[in-house]
Amino acid sequence: MIAPNRATNLPDDQRIVITGLGLTSPNGNDWNSFRQSLLEKRSGVQPYEIRYFGKTLAGICDFEQTRYQTRKDLRRGTRAGSVGVYCANEAIKHSGIDWDNTDKSRVGIYVGVTEHGNVETENEIHVIKGFDYDTSCWSHHHNPRTVANNPAGEIALNMGITGPHYTIGAACAAGNAGIIQGAQMLRLGECDLAIAGGTSESIHTFGIFASFNSQNALAIHDDPTKASRPFDVHRNGIVVAEGGCLYTLERLSDAKARDAEIYGELVGYAINTDATDFVLPNPERQAQCIQMALGRAGLTPDQIDIVSTHATGTSSGDSQECIALRSVFGDSKHTRINNTKSYIGHAMGAAGSLELAGNLPSFKDHVVHPTINVDEVDPDCHLDGLVINEPQESQRVDYILNNSFGMLGINSVVIISRF
Known about the structure:
This protein is of the alpha/beta class. It has two domains: 17-257, Thiolase/Chalcone synthase (Peroxisomal Thiolase, Chain A, domain 1, 3-Layer(aba) Sandwich); 269-417, Thiolase/Chalcone synthase (Peroxisomal Thiolase, Chain A, domain 1, 3-Layer(aba) Sandwich), CATH 3.40.47. The protein contains 14 helices and 14 strands. It has helices spanning 31-39, 71-76, 79-95, 118-129, 142-146, 150-159, 174-187, 206-214, 252-257, 283-297, 315-329, 341-344, 351-359, 362-365, and strands at residues 16-24, 45-50, 54-59, 107-113, 165-169, 193-200, 243-251, 264-273, 306-308, 336-338, 367-368, 392-393, 399-406, 410-417. The chain has a ten-stranded mixed beta sheet with strand order 5-4-6-7-1-8-14-13-9-10, with helices on both faces. It has a two-stranded antiparallel ribbon with strand order 2-3. A two-stranded antiparallel sheet has the order 11-12. A hairpin with a 3-residue loop joins strand 2 (45-50) and strand 3. Helix 3 crosses helix 6 (150-159) and helix 10 packs across helix 11.
């Protein structure tokens, strides 16, 4: 029997459940293939070359763009918008919702992003450079492409949704933040169905590669599939990735009314801020965020079965998160800890929601996917429950805690329970 938590004491119209999801990742374009790649230890990182910066490595998605959009839509819109449109439509299909008879004014869209607009601005500057910087050549599509609400707005236009839509700018904590926002809006009665999660088009801006490179934080390796190696003593930086994962969230009362299949329940969440540095994480604040989420859920650390880490493969970032995890879970003998970026790189605004999706199947199969590419654990990253290189079976998987942290000190945590 699942251990009790505070959320299950709420009325059904305040309990928020996951009823569907759609995703694209560098190693899978649907939930099943993504999960299988994680269990089979298949990386999605590959060689990549981008204008001005040159050759590098990246996590690249290859989803069917024209499944839900015309070629004209793709020319007018953005890559982040296209990722979002694909994931949102896949989520609705997966949920089994009677979409044709759904009141679209009661659907909300909450999409987390790390950044948006850099790709489009870089492209326009590249074009006008060839015309002696004559701005009359600047595209009239630039403004709608670069407004902050674009990815969510493209989803709304594509699917005829007339309820609230906006993006949540929360750096690399944004995937979790999108889920949290969707849940809060459902509880407030602002919508009856939330499409929530995160998207990323980051690999299409040369600036992000150049900036990480100038920080000595961009991963390099002769074998692309081994470049992303969180917790390893020889890790040397981030592999930038694109991708997306959006969930359909519903109040439990609504999900029950339509006899929906439920993939998990959001029982705890928290967001806080380090307020100490632009880039360097603060493990004390991260630990506080985890404790806040546990407190909201009414859970103790030893009730958490899987911790999905944020660890990006940077020297300081991984070590700082491990300090936070040891301070919270140091006495837990059951909790297993893993990482998904080792397979796909850092999908920025989509990271939190994608990484959660990789672990949700554990509620059914009781298998914890490993962190790959760990040849030697850095002593600063030692964690008793770290699952390395091979999947592990667990007798109990009732609660999954998902960490997602970002620049300027934003921290986010969500806790999902088996329903």
